[in-house]
Design goal:
The complex is a heterodimer. By secondary structure, chain A is an alpha/beta fold. Helix content of chain A is 27%, strand content 21%. Chain A is built from five helices and twelve strands. The C terminus of chain A is likely disordered. By secondary structure, chain B is α/β, with parallel strands linked by helices. Among the domains of chain B are: 68 residues, no CATH class; 64 residues, no CATH class. In chain B, the strands form three sheets. A six-stranded parallel beta sheet of chain B has the order 1-10-7-4-2-3, sandwiched between helices. A four-stranded mixed beta sheet of chain B has the order 8-5-6-9. Chain B has a two-stranded antiparallel ribbon with strand order 11-12. The chains are: A alpha/beta, B alpha/beta. The interface between A and B is large, with 73 and 95 residues. Strand 9 of chain A pairs antiparallel with strand 9 of chain B. Bound molecules: iron/sulfur cluster. The site of iron/sulfur cluster (SF4) has 14 residues of chain B, from helix 14.
Chain lengths: 231, 515
């Protein structure tokens, strides 16, 4: 038995090696004209113009996707989070490891469920909402990026519950896509989120909410702001 | 020919027999013949026009917002050209980085090889089904059909792909594959077909898109939660880091990329970018060109496997399947820059009138007209009549080049491929192609005169061909000339398209808008 398994494994290995070499050889053979390395002209904008208020722009662009934007200060944060959860009558909320406890100070009469030990997918599917922080946010495109860091948890947490409350601090907001990539670590699993899930597959009619969270609340914490004014 | 399609019968109880036999593009008649279906259906043409006009207008707005759009296009084209110039080194770099991050890399010369690898991985995982993220490349290699032969169900999870799959139908647009179906047809498909594939649609399902999307959500959630293996394509892979990226809208991609234990990604060898930084170009070009948004709702990026997060087994299959043939043609090579955004479809006056099915491959519209013949080896050997007809499925108006985010000179390649057709099949056959195109499309353009005029307008732009349509060393009269002189050269197609289509699409309710 063992012998056969070894032979099979060896054959598979040879096949793979063959395909690899064959493809690489075909590519080399295709270079009839010996194409040279191409220098990439990067004359596009890498930095956002200094006169743009990225926080304002981000708030505006996120709202364009029909996500709900709440603007608050550090002091008003806990209350705003509680409000956002209540707005969709969340009863059970999953809390990723590393989310500051103070953020949940005003969340009462809602079951807070930790992902430790990890919840099953079925359990996560039965949860109403998730609260996360984020890694970076992009003003021009109204995007938040999660990198599974502290306060965000593994990717499934922000996927299965139908309501995602995401906290974004003003200093996490960059202007455009190039700046965001500079801040991100490719080795981490990254999820870029621009509004709630959507489809236009039926007669190009936009429907918000298919498989991902149908409701996205972005809580924007801006220390410059003295009064809380939810939008 | 590829006519022997296997008929799949999946009969075990509880194992839905949803895709038997799976419709494929095999046997599509040449373009002018195939185009007649849409051309003869005013409702379908109205749908197509409305759809393409809507997306095109939205895209123009999304692009106008970027003052540096041209610079992004130039950079995008250069990055891809750089990839094409040093593919071996970049592929090897990607491979070693994926392996270092815990992934397994496979190489596949063609579709059969790739399909066999996928089937083996699924079987080894002890699974009998996979969930799929919409992927052009797995359509190209007819993966679902290959898996069905092995008793493995492949569930499409993109809403439009679900509509196409449940409707035993074929996709007709890259971005909105069910663009040819209206809401009532979709409701009927859901009502009659969902039950056989899993959770049935509610009996009183209406035709409001919101309701239909909700039915799809519930139907697919069951599948996402139990799936152990997922199959995806890739929009980009970064050689420098080993990162793979998928862009999407609905969240079905995230479900597939996150929940199962095993993830299999099939990608064409051209999908690379050299460095992490290069994504800054394509993450701007792609969403605005494709869904005409500043950013698509979800983009996932992963590098190998992450302990405790997502699939713990990751297989990446690098597929050739004709791409090295494309690479060997120094004029046609630029088609490999394509990022499958579908912008060229929405501006194409021919696509707008014929729809996607007429192109006879998963790649419709202008990109299909240049990519399909090349993938089928036109640079190396004569191709069949359907393939040879594709480079003629254009009025050479040049709109596709203007919108292409990676500046593929589609008209230039079309003219180049026409010279290959002339060389392979003789000028009489080439004449016949032009004439056939005139016959079927002339009416839709308001007469051959108008179609001819469209071509002349293009040449005034000066980008492509002289107005006489000089092709290679053979000087052909322009299309208008061909219309008068070559009317009777072409023999009628062997299989009338309508009959072929019925056999494949299994039109349920006596000729729905799909065909
Ligand atoms: S050819 Fe250009 S415009 Fe057409 S799908 Fe490809 S990238 Fe988009």
């Amino acid at each position: 038995m063992r012998g056969i398994a070894t032979v099979v494994a060896a054959v598979v290995k040879v096949e793979r090696a063959d395909a690899r070499e064959a493809i690489l050889n075909r590519i080399r053979a295709a270079y009839v004209d010996r194409p040279a390395r191409v220098d990439v002209p990067r004359d596009y904008d890498v930095l956002t113009a200094a006169d743009i208020d990225v926080v304002e722009l981000f708030a505006e662009r996120v709202a364009d996707y029909r996500a709900v934007v709440h603007r608050t200060t550090e002091a008003g944060l806990a209350a705003t989070i509680a409000e956002a959860l209540a707005s969709r009558s969340a009863r059970r909320v999953v809390v990723p490891t590393g989310l500051p406890a103070a953020w949940l100070a005003s969340v009462i009469s809602v079951d807070q469920i930790a992902d430790d030990p990890p919840l099953t997918h079925a359990q996560l599917d039965g949860v109403d909402a998730v609260i996360t922080s984020c890694a970076v946010a992009i003003a021009v495109t109204g995007t938040i990026v999660l990198d599974a860091g502290p306060g965000q948890g593994r990717r499934a947490l922000s996927l299965l519950p139908d309501h995602h409350v995401c906290i974004v601090r003003a200093d996490q907001i960059v202007g455009g896509v190039p700046e965001a990539l500079q801040r991100l670590d490719p080795r981490r699993p990254l999820t870029w989120i621009s509004g709630p899930s959507a489809t236009s597959d039926i007669e190009l009619d936009r429907v918000e909410g298919v498989h991902g969270p149908r409701n996205l609340d972005v809580v924007l914490v801006d220390p410059r702001r003295s009064v809380q004014r939810p939008r | 020919m590829r006519d022997q399609r296997p008929v799949v019968r999946v009969t075990s109880p509880g194992r839905p027999a949803i895709h038997e036999p799976l419709p494929t593009f095999a046997g599509t008649p040449p373009f002018p013949e195939a185009a007649k279906v849409a051309l003869a259906d005013p409702q379908l043409r109205r749908n197509l026009r409305m759809a393409t006009t809507t997306i095109r207008t939205k895209r123009a707005r999304a692009v106008e917002e970027c003052p540096d759009w041209e610079e992004l296009r130039v950079a995008g084209a250069a990055i891809k050209d750089d990839v094409m110039a040093r593919l071996p080194e970049l592929l090897e770099q990607l491979e070693s980085n994926v392996v270092a991050a815990g992934g397994v890399v496979h190489w596949a010369r063609d579709g059969a090889e790739a399909n066999a690898i996928v089937a083996r991985i699924v079987r080894d995982a002890g699974a009998t089904e996979v969930v799929k993220v919409k992927s052009m490349v797995t359509q190209e290699i007819e993966l679902n059909e290959a898996l069905a032969l092995q008793g493995i169900d492949a569930w499409e999870t993109d809403l439009a792909e679900l509509i196409v799959q449940l409707g035993h139908d074929l996709p007709s647009h890259i971005l909105v594959p069910a663009i040819h179906r209206n809401r009532s047809e979709i409701r009927d498909i859901f009502r009659t077909e969902m039950g056989a594939a899993g959770r049935p649609a509610p009996a009183d399902l209406g035709n409001d898109p919101r309701e239909l999307a909700e039915a799809a959500r519930l139907h697919l959630r069951e599948k996402f939660l139990r799936a152990r293996v997922a199959v995806s394509g890739a929009n980009f892979a970064v050689a420098e880091t080993g990162t793979v990226m998928v862009v999407e809208s609905e969240g079905n991609g995230r479900m597939c990329l996150t929940l199962p234990d095993v993830l299999i990604t099939v990608m064409g060898i051209e999908k690379l970018v050299p460095s992490w930084r290069d994504l800054e170009v394509f993450l701007q070009l792609l969403p605005r060109s494709s869904t005409a948004e500043r950013m698509n709702p979800y983009t996932s990026m992963w590098t190998g496997v992450t302990p405790g997060d997502g699939p713990q087994v990751f297989h990446l299959i690098l597929l050739d399947n004709g791409r090295t043939d494309v690479l060997s043609d120094t004029v046609g090579r630029q088609a490999l820059r394509c990022i499958k955004c579908s912008a060229c479809l929405n501006v194409c006056p021919v696509y707008e009138r014929t729809g996607g099915h007429a192109y006879g491959s998963p790649y419709p519209g202008p990109i299909g007209a240049i990519l399909t013949p090349q993938l089928r080896g036109i640079a190396r050997h004569p191709v069949d009549e359907q393939t040879a007809s594709l480079p003629y499925a254009s009025s050479l108006c040049g709109a596709c080049f203007d919108v292409c985010p990676v500046r593929i000179d589609i008209p230039e390649i079309l003219v180049h491929l026409r010279t290959l057709v002339v060389r392979q099949h003789g000028w009489r056959a080439a004449f016949g192609q032009e004439a056939g195109m005139m016959r079927s499309l002339g009416g839709a353009f308001g007469g051959p005169r108008r179609l001819g005029a469209a071509e002349r307008v293009a040449s005034v732009g000066g980008r492509v061909v002289g107005r006489s349509g000089r092709i290679g060393r053979v000087r052909l009269p322009g299309m208008l000339g061909a219309w008068f002189r070559a009317r009777d050269l072409r023999a009628p197609a062997k299989v009338p398209f309508r009959r072929w289509w019925r056999g494949h699409a299994r039109d349920r309710d006596g000729g729905g808008g799909g065909g």
